[in-house]
Design goal:
This protein is an alpha/beta fold. The protein is built from 16 helices and 25 strands. Strands 6-5-4-7-13-9-14-11 form an 8-stranded mixed beta sheet, with helices on both faces. A 7-stranded mixed beta sheet has the order 18-17-19-23-21-24-22, with helices on both faces. It has a two-stranded parallel sheet with strand order 1-16. A hairpin with a 2-residue loop joins strand 2 and strand 3.
Length: 603
């Protein structure tokens, strides 16, 4: 175990390849089936351009793929899985991996990949130069001194030269942290019939792998009116742009493509040494058009970080990117990332001790889709957890509720929907209630509780560590700390904890998407005897720390002494909000308890 407070957050990108079968559900098989359905929906079941070649009995064009690797051990298992899954005849593909200045285990990962898969391809070559791990003037892991710019430009030019020497029809250049999720990528790009074209790659920001314009005085990026409509796919197609990068297909049968050079800079180059700026200038000087294709979803790339940051920040950024794209639209595409195993990397199996006795993840057994997403997200963060089965409204009946002594609080009406409790809200409350009991019964001192629809902030682990530091530094006497919530308007402003940087006293709040809970907090929540006067759990908690604005609840719960706080800034959010595409609530969209005679299949 590695403690999150030791200054280095280790990331678990995925668990070992095991079959997970819980309560009769084969989650790994379900995951494969779900990914196939999503792939067919997002990318299409077939590659149309491939069908034309197959129908005409034509031989597929040859493609020389060049892959640039530097300190990408964390990304390579995912990148290589995408590479293997490209729906293109591997006997028409040659691979050139080039790795240099690596301080991690990237070289061994690539070598292990080639040992397993090299015979599937027409040809493979792996060139390595790890004689040095840094350039002479490099100031940090992510810094780009002039020597590094020059080196990568020379490598890209060598990639094109090698492809032409092999008489390849196309050269495809790609960075080793780009995830080409669309299996039809190569066929689609070839079908665009352009000399140099890039697949538009999505990121978690507005950043992408193209520029529409550049500053003529400096050579650097200039935002244009055309950029966001293309980046956000408000319009779709193939567009001529000023720059493409990170992944591109070059048609070597076009004379115009052969006129383009990555290196050296064209005569009269007036700008600072930068590979992007040189490419913009060389393309413009040679009058070689560059195109970006956003007509399809091709995949994802991490956005670049500031050069002062380190490799650990790059890993965190990559993990956050994957966590986001596995969330369904409009956040991501709902595709669960896959990786190749047996590549000899142990960085992918490291777990993180986040400093709590247990981590609960609440999930309905009939929602394996949410389980798979949360299981993947938590494992990528290195968090070991207990899969806590939620109480299912579809399986509740009146005798079950009577045995537990469940009664709705007299006169309770949802303040926003003008209705009483739903069976789903009862199930949600009971799920949290049974966790509170479990904490007390097992003597846990401090735990984390997650629901199964969580989006994590990129720096979640560091944020949680900051909260832990504030607790210990200020000897905070706490019962519950929200790490995700909906802050509601109240008369009083929230007050920060004196001296703390990451914790405030919580005001009236909704949601129980995630919170920290102490044993004393669990005891106080149980002592309120909430089952006999039930309200939604996210109403009950602020009542118990005496911040609920409705006085009629106060007399029902006279001991309102829960010490309630919140992380500030928040560390997690729900995957979807009310009204968004793919928003669905198992608590809100269920039958209200007044409709006791409703058929169970409607719950």
């Amino acid at each position: 175990m590695t403690n999150v407070n030791d200054g280095f957050i280790r990331i678990l990108l995925f668990a070992c390849c095991t079959w997970i079968v819980v309560s009769g559900i084969d989650y790994k098989r379900y995951e494969r089936q779900r990914n196939k359905e999503f792939s067919d929906k997002v990318f299409g079941a077939d590659c149309p351009f491939k069908s034309e070649y197959t129908a005409a009995a034509s031989v597929a064009p040859t493609i020389a793929i060049s892959i640039f690797v530097r300190n990408k051990e964390y990304a390579l298992p995912y990148f290589l899985k995408c590479l293997i899954d490209l729906d293109y005849p591997k006997d028409r593909i040659s691979l050139w991996f080039v790795a240099d200045h690596n301080r991690d285990n990237s070289v061994q990962v690539v070598q292990n990949f080639l040992n397993i898969y090299k015979n599937e391809y027409h040809a493979t070559q792996f060139d390595v130069d790890d004689s040095k791990v840094e350039y002479a003037s490099q100031r940090g892991d992510l810094d780009w001194p002039n020597e590094r710019y020059i080196h990568i430009m020379k490598l890209r030019q060598k990639a094109v030269d090698r492809a032409m020497e092999q008489w390849a029809d196309y050269a495809f250049l790609v960075d080793a942290d780009n995830l080409l999720l669309n299996p039809c990528t190569l066929w689609l790009l070839a079908s665009r019939d352009q000399g140099i074209v890039a697949p538009m790659l999505d990121t978690t920001l507005s950043y992408s792998n193209f520029w529409c314009d550049y500053n003529k005085e400096t050579g650097y990026y200039l935002r244009s009116d055309e950029y966001l409509p293309i980046r956000n796919r408000e319009k779709r197609g193939v567009y001529q742009v000023a720059l493409i990068h990170s992944a591109m297909l070059i048609d070597l049968t076009y004379i115009v493509s052969r006129n383009f050079k990555f290196w050296p800079p064209a005569k009269g180059y007036p700008y600072n040494m930068d590979d992007f700026v040189v490419m913009v200038y060389n393309a413009a000087t040679a009058e070689v058009p560059l195109y970006i294709d956003n007509s399809e979803i091709y995949g994802y790339m991490p956005y670049p970080l500031d050069g002062a940051q380190d490799m650990n920040a790059e890993i965190i950024n990559f993990v956050h990117m994957i966590n986001e794209f596995m969330t369904e639209d409009p956040v991501g595409i709902g595709f669960i990332p896959q990786r190749l195993h047996n590549l000899g990397t142990d960085v992918l199996t490291t777990t993180t001790d986040i400093g709590f006795d247990n981590v609960y993840m609440i999930n309905l057994e009939r929602r394996p889709d949410r389980y798979i997403q949360m299981d993947t997200k938590l494992k990528m963060l290195g968090i070991e957890y207990e899969h806590f089965h939620a109480v299912d409204a579809k399986k509740m009946n009146e005798s079950y509720l009577a045995d537990l002594g469940v009664k709705m609080l007299d006169g309770y009406v949802d303040p926003f929907r003008d209705r009483p409790l739903t069976y789903g809200e009862i199930g949600c409350f009971l799920s949290h209630y049974f966790i509170w009991k479990d904490i007390v019964d097992k003597g846990y001192n401090e735990v984390v509780v997650f629901e199964d629809d969580v989006r994590f902030e990129a720096n979640f682990l560091q944020g949680l560590s900051n909260v832990r530091t504030d607790i210990e530094t200020h000897n905070l006497d706490w019962d519950l700390i929200y790490i995700g919530r909906k802050k509601l308007k109240s008369k009083n402003e929230e007050v920060g904890v004196k001296g703390a940087n990451s914790i405030v006293w919580a005001g009236y709040s909704y949601w129980t998407v995630g919170y920290l809970l102490s044993r004393s907090g669990a005891q106080k929540l149980l002592a309120g005897n909430p089952l006999s006067k039930m309200v939604p759990v996210d109403e009950y908690i602020p009542v118990m720390f005496d911040k609920h604005p409705m006085e009629k609840y106060w007399e029902q719960f006279p001991e309102r002494n829960l010490k309630g706080y919140s992380a500030e800034p928040l560390l997690i959010y729900p995957t979807h909000y009310t009204g968004q595409t793919n928003y669905y609530s198992d608590t809100e969209y269920s039958v209200i308890i007044a409709a006791a005679d409703t058929k169970k299949d409607e719950l």
